[in-house]
Specification:
Blueprint (H helix, E strand, L loop, with lengths): L1 H28 L4 H6 L5 H11 L5 H13 L5 E2 L4 E2 H36 L4 H15 L2 H15 L24 H7 L3 H38 L2 H8 L4 H30 L2 H6 L5 H10 L3 H29 L7
Antiparallel strand pairs: 1-2
């Protein structure tokens, strides 16, 4: 097991270097000059040139990349000049908001999609199955930005059931005492149930919006995996022995169908964590997504490169964790 983990970590390194190189090159060839953005459009050419020299933008690309890798090896992701803070400092401030939104979206997706997939598989070609497939297709096809605007229009503008999409908590409520950075957990730990209720009301719409695509994918995979397992001999044998149908489905079929579904769950959690940019922008959620959007508009290289690299690391770690979970679900799986 230990050797397997170490081998996987070693295999991650070339991929991360490649991602860092590709991101570095793309960020340099995009239109826009960070020196001009920092100095201002009306700045004299001499001032712009001085800033370019200080930022190292006049050096050859390979020299800039080597300097960038040296900084990464020292744990330095650079300075976000459009905020005046270090990139790691900005990430530490904003990442809890993104993580909280991701976890909430993931929980909603799993709680809805897994039962829907199981029911659709056990009642194949029924009305329930057809309805689940229609909703899965809609959920996979509907653009997130459109769905977010529709949810805001209905539940905030027309019905008034949801608060204004202006962040994690209302302006009239102070954030809970900082413990984890996750407002829901911090409000529970501090016993501030007013903040908890307010935070939950702000979280529910963006979480639903972000979870729809993931919900559709998980439901379709769960249905497909369950149909494949239900048709196998050991399920027919269990039914022939007179075992209750619920036991056959939940104890025998579901456990075996979880392996392919677990892969999708891991990938989708990584997708939610790294792909919440549009949702955070629509709902003014103060997470990493909005921060990266601001960085792109400001032609600020360091946050964009850090976001891409950290997302790749998270994807790799999540995939490794999913592979290790296989052994707990199916004891026949061994790591050599």
């Amino acid at each position: 097991m230990v050797n397997y983990i170490l081998r996987r970590i070693v295999f991650m390194i070339p991929g991360l270097i490649g991602i860092a190189l590709i991101t570095f090159i793309i960020s340099r060839v995009l239109p826009g000059d960070p020196a001009v953005m920092l100095a201002g459009e009306q700045a004299p050419p001499a001032v712009v040139e001085k800033i370019r020299q200080e930022m190292g933008l006049n050096n050859p690309l390979y020299v800039q990349f080597i300097d960038y890798v040296k900084q990464l090896l020292q744990g330095d992701f650079g300075l976000a000049w459009h905020t005046g803070n270090t990139v790691l400092g900005d990430f530490a401030t904003r990442f809890p908001a993104t993580l909280e939104l991701t976890i909430a979206s993931f929980i909603i997706a799993v709680l809805v999609a897994v039962p829907v997939g199981i029911i659709a598989a056990t009642k194949k070609e029924s009305v329930v199955d057809h309805i689940s497939r229609i909703f899965s297709l809609i959920g996979a096809c509907v653009p997130v930005f459109w769905l977010g605007l529709i949810l805001i229009s209905i539940f905030y503008s027309k019905l008034g059931w949801a608060p204004a999409p202006l962040g994690r908590i209302g302006e009239d409520i102070n954030p809970p005492t900082h413990v984890t950075g996750l407002y829901l957990i911090d409000s529970l730990l501090s016993g501030d149930f007013i903040a908890f209720k307010k935070m939950l009301s702000h979280l529910i719409l963006p979480a639903i919006c972000l979870s729809t695509g993931t919900m559709a994918i998980i439901a379709r995979m769960m249905r497909s995996s369950m149909l494949e397992v239900i048709g196998q001999d050991f399920i027919r044998t269990a039914r022939a022995k007179g075992i209750y149908e619920r036991t056959v489905i939940l104890k025998h079929a579901l456990v075996n169908a979880l392996i392919p579904t677990l892969t999708v769950l891991g990938l989708q959690f990584g997708y939610l964590l790294g792909g919440a940019v549009i949702t955070e922008t629509i709902f003014a959620w103060p997470g990493i997504g909005g921060y990266v959007t601001e960085s792109i508009l400001a032609t600020d290289y360091a946050p964009i490169q850090a976001f891409t690299l950290i997302s790749a690391i998270l994807y790799s770690v999540i995939n490794l964790a999913v592979d290790l979970l296989y052994g707990f679900i199916d004891p026949r799986i061994r790591y050599e």
